[in-house]
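1st attempt posting a full record on here, be nice pls
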Amino acid sequence: GEQGKAGTAVGRGRLSDDHSKLENFEVIFRQMPKLSTGIHFGSRLVFDNDGHLFVALGENNQRPTSQELDKHQGKVVRIGLDGSVPDDNPFIGQEGVQPEIWSYGHRNQQGAALNPWSGVLWTNEHGPRGGDEVNIPQAGKN
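the predicted structure (as tokens):
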């Protein structure tokens, strides 16, 4: 991006029959704005059991952004498999808020999975000075 800034993007495509290339590739999500200078890209993708994709995003070492709902940094976003925003996302229709945001206040998420018994999303993030965390993010919550 501009001035060497970067952000996480998610794309989808189909592996060709000869396994040599991706066909029909399209980007379905872009972390906005682009803020990173190369660190805290922490990200994981998790498909839920209802046809949604959770994207856990690092705060790009811009810590205050994890609390700012007009930015994707430091968030878990939830999108459809085609990149659409689910109608039941918690911030739909709120002015100045990215509608993909599902939860916020995260730092540098390095892992994510669905609990195999409950289907609930769990994430882990690297905290400062050894303060690593396991989180159970909830829709609309910090």
